[in-house]
Structures are given as structure tokens and as C-alpha cells.
Amino acid sequence: METGLRGKTALITGGSSGIGRGIALALAEEGVDLAIASRDPDPAAIADLQARGVRCMAIRADVSVEAEVVAMVATAIAQLGHLDLYVNNAAWTWHQPVTQIDSESWFRTLNTNLSACMWACREVGRQMIARRTGSILIVGSTVRFNPSYRETAYRVSKEGLRMYMQDLAIELAPYGIRVNMVTPGHFQTRMTSSVPKATEAKMLELIPAHRFGQPVEIGYAAALLLSDRLSPYTIGADLVVDGGLTLRPLPLFSQEEVAAMNAQE
Ligand SMILES: NC(=O)c1ccc[n+]([C@@H]2O[C@H](COP(=O)([O-])OP(=O)(O)OC[C@H]3O[C@@H](n4cnc5c(N)ncnc54)[C@H](OP(=O)(O)O)[C@@H]3O)[C@@H](O)[C@H]2O)c1
After folding, report:
1. Whether the predicted model's global pTM rises above the 0.70 cut
2. Is 86 part of the annotated catalytic residue set?
3. Which of 11, 23, 140, 223 is deepest in the core (most CB within 10 A)?
4. Distance of alpha carbon 83 from the chain centroid
5. Of 142, 136, 133, which Cα lies nearest the Cα of 168?
């Protein structure tokens, strides 16, 4: 099925690694011209995207700084002509237990993950309103569904993003602009590289699909939500892509019993 994304332009923050790169790859495959922004965009990832036949440029920006976000959006619009799509993906987490949270890490987390989205969508939104078209996708996290140790600022930022996404969606919808969220479960990226292997093994048992996600699988969900052809009436949605992790069935049966339950001869 045609997504109708060919020839569109997109700005993706954090688009040269992990999940952002998965989104960039899926959009490049659909023929979307790209601006990839982060503090240090990976030249190899940019070249790989260009090799797929689309325009792709790197923009250096620290999204925790308002002036850099404003400049990032202006540069993307200047280089691509306009922005049809904006993907707010860049984020980071500083692991601190509640008695050790320092103000610098707290505000850095909230600025990188949450304020950056508000600054960028304000700038992108003005341009999209003038053009009466556009689609915005915000990357959330399943971490917000249950309390998590040493992740307070990150969880607060991701829940804040969801609330912000809903308000953005209702204010921009009258101008023909759709805003949605994609919410990943566990993906093996730089952000999760410090998770111990033993912990990941336990997580695998909790995931009904019994595997971690591939970043491009978020990319496919992103293409679906960003496409005006495939999702014209989808506004303020939160698409969870987690292999079933957040379904959390009660552990009444062993993995072996579950596997045997519906086995066919
Ligand atoms: N991995 C998971 O299991 C998982 C689960 C749920 C949600 N997520 C979400 O998925 C998104 C991508 O994370 P990831 O897992 O793909 O990790 P990742 O590979 O580490 O990607 C994070 C990206 O954000 C960029 N970034 C970080 N701080 C920045 C800043 N101050 N300014 C500009 N760019 C910045 C990084 O680029 P530079 O270093 O070049 O700045 C990097 O490209 C995040 O929103 C994260 O919360 C991930």
C-alpha cells in the first residue's frame, strides 16, 4: 500500500542512531528527504541514508538549549524548503535514585526530552499552520506505564510528553496538522546499553513476543502515523510498539506451559 510520503520533507532529532535511525531508514525507503539533528550526527549513518536516493543533511544541535532548537528548525526549513513532517525523538536519561537527584541532571533531562519538544513544535507548528498541512510524531516510552527505579526524571519527561502531545494535537488539528505518539518498549540501543544482560534476559521472559524490537519496527509505525494517506483521521493517538511487554499477564503459568497451551499436532 502506498504511504504517499514520497517527496515529503522531515526533520528527525536523534536520527542517526538507534530508534531515530530506524525511523529515518523507514522514511528514506518511502522517499522522504531528511534533516537529521543531534549534537554529533554520525556521518556514516547520514551517508547510508543518502545512498537510498533521498536528500539527507546533518544539523548539529543540542536540543536541551532553546536557541539551538530554534536554529535547528530554521536551518532545516532553509535547507529543505519547508517541513512536512517533524519527529521528536532525541532523549537521554541520567540514572539517579530519588535521594540523589541533582538539579543539573533533572533540568537537563526535562530540557532534552520535554522542553526541546515544546520549543521545536512551537517553531515547526508556526510554519505548518501557515501551510495548513503537516504531521508531527513524538517518541514516548513504555517506561511511563509503571514506576521504575532510578528513572524518575526520565519517566516524568515521557509522561509530560504524552500530555503535551495531546494538547498539541487538539490545537493544531483545525489547521490540518496531525500530532501522534509512538511508544517503544525495549530496544537494544546506546541508551539501553548499560542494562545488564541478566536483566535483559528477565525482560525477554516478560515480552510475549520473546524478542526485543528492531529500531526499523518503530520506523514502520512512524511511517504509518506520519502518512496522511494511511492515517488521515488519526490524531492524538499513542501507538505502543513493544512486542506485548505492557500487556503484563499475571505469571500463572510457566513459559513452557504457555508454549504448550495452544500447540498444534
Ligand atoms: N531504547 C529503548 O528501549 C527505548 C524505549 C522507549 C523509548 N525510547 C526512546 O527512543 C528515543 C531514541 O532513543 P534510543 O534508544 O534510540 O537511544 P540512542 O541511540 O542513544 O538515541 C538517542 C539520540 O538522541 C540524541 N540526543 C541525545 N541528547 C541530545 C541532545 N541534548 N541534543 C540533541 N540530540 C541528542 C543522540 O544523538 P547525539 O548523541 O549525537 O546528540 C541520539 O541520536 C528516545 O526518545 C528514547 O526515550 C527508547
Report:
1. yes
2. no
3. 23
4. 17
5. 136
User: Does an H or E element contain 242, and which?
Assistant: none
Classified as helix, coil or strand, 120 is helix
CATH number reported for the structural domain that contains residue 105 in this entry? 3.40.50.720
Residues lining ligand 1, Cβ inside 6 A = 13-14, 16-20, 38-41, 61-64, 89-92, 112, 139, 141, 184, 186-187, 189-192
Question: Is residue 25 a contact partner of residue 49, using CB atoms and an 8 Å limit?
Answer: yes
Residue 253 lies in a domain: yes
Residue 171 lies in a domain: yes
- The beta-strand segments (E) located in 105-192 are 134-139, 177-184
For 117-141, what is each residue's pLDDT tens digit?
A: 999 999 999 999 999 999 999 999 9
Residue 53 located in a structural domain: yes
